[in-house]
Specification:
Beta-lactam_cat; alpha+beta; two-stranded antiparallel ribbon; beta-lactamase activity; Beta-lactamase; Beta-lactam_class-A; 337 residues
Length: 337
């Protein structure tokens, strides 16, 4: 009798425990989805907010490069530069400057085709970072300097042994900062060659930017225009083509170009320029993004065809750069259209 009572009590305890556990499981099964219903929309919104502008914002076909609404031609500046040109009649310039605040611009032979020289390394750099963003190239991967990619002209890698290994990032940095031709060939090769790059340039709207030969292109067969390179700067400045992280890295490299004798030489104290220069015996050029100490920004592209090694071309670019800088540095109300 006592044994039966004991067994009955034990069974009651077990039944009560199972019921309590079932209630707890039922509560948890109801509460977990409720938490997911609250958190999932927040997570999705967060991820959407983190999408890059270069992926989500459409390009405006009516604006310059699809991103900068054009204002008026800066006629006051145009007359100043053309007066300067009369003092340098042996030079043939082409230039485009664009005020990002107003959309006002200076266009003198901006679509004239020139040998690109080393300014071609600017679009090559952006193409590299596009591939990095796509996950097809890593900045820390190793490139091997093959003999068929080694060349003379600018840069120091030509003096190293074939088989030298460098990271993609270090190679790209040398391509821009010291304008290394061998480094450029290594990057072009890693990107699949000239034809693939030319297709990419066309897709960006750079209609006259073409790589016909590997570096060094001493005969000037690779071509571009001042307007094409300013288009590329406009796209990068407006967060197109590459991610914000890649944009930061690319511009940081371009702020450390060693040649300071062209656009840089005409800028005011405290100005910052991310740019790429180019030099051949018969031509010099420079293109990039300039930020004044006030925060005002503008884009620049300029080429000058010259007699062989004529140093006056460099002086001309410096003076044009100074004119543009001083013109744009005026208070907005005093600027003439």
């Amino acid at each position: 009798m006592k044994l039966n009572l004991l067994l009955l009590s034990f069974a009651s305890i077990l039944l009560f425990s199972f019921q309590a556990k079932a209630e707890q499981l039922d509560y948890n099964s109801r509460s977990i989805p409720q938490k997911q219903e609250i958190q999932a929309p927040k997570l999705e919104k967060l991820l959407n907010n983190q999408k890059k502008d270069f992926q989500t914002k459409p390009i405006d076909s009516s604006a310059f490069a699809g991103v900068v609404p054009l204002g008026k031609e800066m006629s006051g500046l145009d007359s100043q530069v053309k007066a300067l040109m009369t003092r340098y009649k042996s030079l043939t310039p082409g230039m485009f400057f664009l005020d990002l605040q107003t959309g006002n611009y200076l266009d003198i032979n901006a679509e004239k085709v020139f040998p690109a020289a080393s300014t071609i390394k600017f679009p090559v750099l952006i193409a590299l970072f596009e591939e990095v963003d796509a996950g097809r190239i890593k900045l820390d991967e190793t490139l091997v300097m093959r003999r068929n990619l080694m060349t003379g002209g600018s840069g120091t890698m030509q003096y190293q042994r074939a088989g030298t290994k460098l990271s993609v990032l270090k190679t790209a940095t040398k391509m821009i900062t010291i304008s290394d031709n061998t480094a450029t060939n290594m990057i072009i090769d890693r990107l699949g060659g000239k034809a693939k790059l030319n297709e990419r340039f066309q897709s960006w709207g750079l209609q006259k930017t073409v790589i016909r030969n590997m570096l060094g292109d001493f005969k000037g067969t690779n071509t571009t225009t001042a307007k094409d390179l300013v288009k590329l700067s406009a796209l990068i400045d407006n967060h197109k083509l590459i991610s914000d992280n890649s944009r930061f890295q690319a511009l940081d490299i371009m702020r450390n170009v060693s040649n300071k004798k062209l656009l840089c030489a005409g800028l005011g104290s405290g100005a910052i320029i991310a740019h790429k220069t180019g030099t051949l015996g018969v031509l010099i050029g420079d293109a990039g993004i300039i930020e004044m100490p006030s925060g005002k920004r503008y884009l620049a592209g300029i080429f000058v065809r010259r007699n062989f090694n004529d140093s006056r071309a460099r002086d001309f670019i410096r003076q044009v750069s100074q004119m543009v800088y001083q013109y744009l540095d005026q208070p907005t109300l005093t600027q003439l259209p």
